[in-house]
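Checklist before submission:
- one chain only
- standard amino acids only
- sequence pasted in full

Submission:
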Amino acid sequence: LPRPDAKLAAKGAEYFDAELCTACHGLGVENARSSIPDLRLASAQTHAQLPAIVLGGARRDKGMPSFPHITPQELNALQAHILEAAWDAYDAQEAAKAQRK
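Returned file contents:
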């Protein structure tokens, strides 16, 4: 997925903090507990399922509560924040590879 708009990602970071997503998913969406998936590694399929997961509780059986009060716009911003974190991790990985050469 492409890198999101920086302003939208920043707004998503605010929602991520406000909804206390960091309690389980960590400050960098990398995870705060070993059993929680690293959101930076979420597949395109998972991103496509975000409305069902976040709003509809599709992963409630795995411990992910639903957040039906989140608006589609807020969810879009949250997704942008997750994607931005994934791109930042990728960029850091590539920079580390370049330094080793």
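Reviewer check: The mean pLDDT is 93.
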